[in-house]
Write a structure and sequence with these properties.
Length: 182
């Protein structure tokens, strides 16, 4: 009988921990205003490696999500399975190739299922799962400058306003991502 109660207690504790992580994540996401419109004079080639032809970065860092649907949308709840949610979060490969490394990092942080990264037993397991689910992370893994860009963001060596206003949850996410590039 004691073993049965122990298993139930363990399940309840795991559910509490999972719920706390989700609540913390959603609280951070809903109470902060990390995405603000960036004025044209705040964007320069040094800040985000913008090229003459790629003016679309202004739109990508202007508060619009790369994802067509997020948990904040009313239609998100209509997606009943994890597979449906992953599919809804797909980014076309041509769009991914056009994005610079900082944009990809932003897309990974904003990935609607990013909380799942933190729900695995080890960071490595979380990164493996993220690689299967996130197109932005898969593309980020191909970038030779990803480790350097992540380091710059974590050490506040970037002038991109978006990355100067990230919360604790995002910082922990960035730290886990950076382990993949060390």
């Amino acid at each position: 009988m004691n073993g049965k109660y122990f298993k139930i207690l363990l399940i309840v504790l795991l559910l509490i921990i999972l719920t706390q992580r989700v609540i913390i994540h959603m609280t951070f996401k809903n109470t902060k205003n990390i995405i603000q419109v960036i004025n044209n004079d705040e964007i320069s080639k040094e800040n985000i490696d913008i090229t003459e032809k790629d003016e679309s970065i202004r739109a990508r860092f202007s508060g619009k999500s790369i994802y067509s649907i997020t948990p904040d949308d009313k239609n998100w709840n209509k997606l009943t399975t994890k597979e449906e949610k992953v599919k809804a979060c797909r980014i076309p490969s041509d769009t991914l190739k056009e994005m610079n490394t900082n944009e990809l990092i932003k897309a990974v942080i904003e990935f609607p299922l990013i909380v799942n990264l933190h729900l695995h037993n080890t960071p490595e397991e979380g990164l493996k799962a993220l690689q299967k689910e996130s197109d932005a992370f898969k593309e980020l893994l191909k970038r030779t400058d990803a480790g350097e860009k992540l380091s710059n963001i974590l050490n506040n060596k970037t002038n991109i306003k978006y990355f100067q206003e990230i919360d604790t949850f995002d910082i922990e996410t960035l730290k886990i991502l950076q382990t993949r590039f060390n």
